[in-house]
Design a protein that fits this description.
Structural class: alpha+beta
Largest sheet: 5 strands, antiparallel
Radius of gyration: 22 Å
Number of helices: 5
Helix content: 25-40%
Shape: globular
Oligomer: single chain
Distance between the termini: 16 Å
Order of helices and strands: EEEHEEHHEHEEHE
Number of domains: 2
Number of strands: 9
């Protein structure tokens, strides 16, 4: 018997998983050890990552539990071998889980997502590092030089983007001073399937205490209104971006 792991939270007398149904409509169970609880459901087979309805069910279970509990959400696909495997995880990594829960106590994640036009580079379409240049024996030297120039431009652009993102984040931190716990930048450099060609999205994510959420969102809307770039504020969600000790790789 294998269990699909949804999230981990501090042990509670509320029995939060009662009545919940998870992936494949399996009941969501609570297994406790080391003063921690894990929300799991029995899983005979693992749905494919592109099985969108099942992924949405998985996320809904986590979101439901997050309304009442500080929790560590897991990436879709973490399977453990029965109750003993769950208990072993809670025992072995309990200290890290407790530290993470304490750092995120009563917090949610939200973010400002900004759409930027991709920077144009001089010359031909650049080759990203790792891309092989095809060349004949006669022009291999010329193509090799072009590759090196394109590679330098590639890294120069990344450095400029990183500097720009840092400046924006510093301004955000000033605008939201006292309203958030932690922040981070997520540059979707490979693009997103829904983004128009030539557009990239950068996410400025914030961990916000629930008591400051309304004030933070009001301040964020004011900031967005004065920005030149297209941007939007995401709805509050479990802190997926701020849980370094996820077990999704197990």
């Amino acid at each position: 018997m294998r269990y699909l792991l949804y999230c981990i939270f501090s042990k509670s007398a509320r029995q939060p998983t009662v009545g919940l149904r998870g992936v494949d409509l399996q009941p969501v169970l609570e297994i406790t050890s080391n003063e921690l609880s894990a929300a799991v459901s029995q899983m005979d087979r693992m749905p494919a990552p592109h099985d969108v309805p099942q992924v949405l069910i998985y996320e809904r279970v986590i979101a439901t539990l997050h309304r009442e509990h500080t929790l560590i959400p897991m990436r879709f696909g973490c399977l453990l071998d029965g109750p003993s495997g769950v208990i072993e995880l809670l025992e072995e990594r309990g200290s890290a889980f407790k530290d993470t829960l304490a750092a995120m106590m009563d917090c949610v994640e939200t973010g400002i997502h900004v759409l930027f036009e991709k920077r144009a580079m001089a010359g031909e379409t650049p080759l990203a590092p790792g891309t092989r240049a095809t060349a004949s024996a006669n022009d291999s030297s010329r193509n090799g030089l072009a590759y090196l120039v394109a590679r330098r431009q590639y890294y120069d652009r990344i450095d400029r983007d990183t500097q720009d993102h840092q400046q924006i984040m510093e301004q955000f931190c000033s605008d939201f001073a006292g309203l958030f716990v932690r922040c981070k930048v997520d540059d979707h450099s490979r693009g997103l399937p829904f983004a128009p060609c030539g557009i990239r999205m950068v996410s400025f994510r914030f961990l916000v205490h629930r008591s400051f959420l309304r004030e933070f969102c009001s301040a964020a809307e004011r900031v967005i209104a004065r920005m030149d770039e297209d941007s939007f504020l995401s709805d509050p969600c479990p802190p997926y971006s701020f849980t370094e000790c996820q077990a999704g790789a197990l």
